[in-house]
Amino acid sequence: MLSTVSRQLKSHPALVPLFIFIGGGTVMSGAYLLRLAMGPHVSWNRNGNPEPWNKTEPTQQHKVVLLSEHGLQQAEERGS
Fold first, then answer.
1. All residues at 6 or more sequence positions from 9 whose CB lies less than 8 Å from its CB, including other chains
2. Which of 45, 56, 65, 68 has the fewest beta carbons under 10 Å from its own?
3. So where does this one cross the membrane (predicted)?
C-alpha cells in the first residue's frame, strides 16, 4: 500500500501538500487528545484513587461546571 501511495505521489506531485497537511492535522489532533487524556482532572485508576477531587490542595484551582439553567440563574443572583 505504501508503494502505491509513493508511486501516485511521484506521478502527481500536486498531491504532496495534501498529504503533508492531512498528516500534520492527524498528528496534531492526536497530540491534543493525548494532552486532554493526561490532564490532572482525569482519573484512569479507579481502584487506586477513586475520588481524586478529595485529595486536592486548598491553593489548587478548580473548574466548576453548571449543567442546568436553574444553576446558572442562582449563580447570577449570588453575583458569581
1. 15, 16, 19
2. 65
3. 14-34
Distance CA 31, CA 38 (A): 11
Tell the residue number behind the cell numbers 478548580, with chain if given.
62
Look at residue 66 in the predicted model and tell me its pLDDT.
Answer: 61
Question: Distance between CA 8 and CA 19 in Å, rounded?
Answer: 11
Instruction: Give the length of the chain.
Output: 80
Which runs of consecutive H residues, i.e. helices, occur in 1-80?
2-11, 16-37, 69-78
What nine digits make up the cell of 77? 443572583
Does pTM surpass 0.85? no
Of residues 71, 57, 59, 69, the one with CA closest to residue 80: 71
Q: Taking a C-beta distance cutoff of 8 angstroms, is the pair 52, 43 a contact?
A: yes
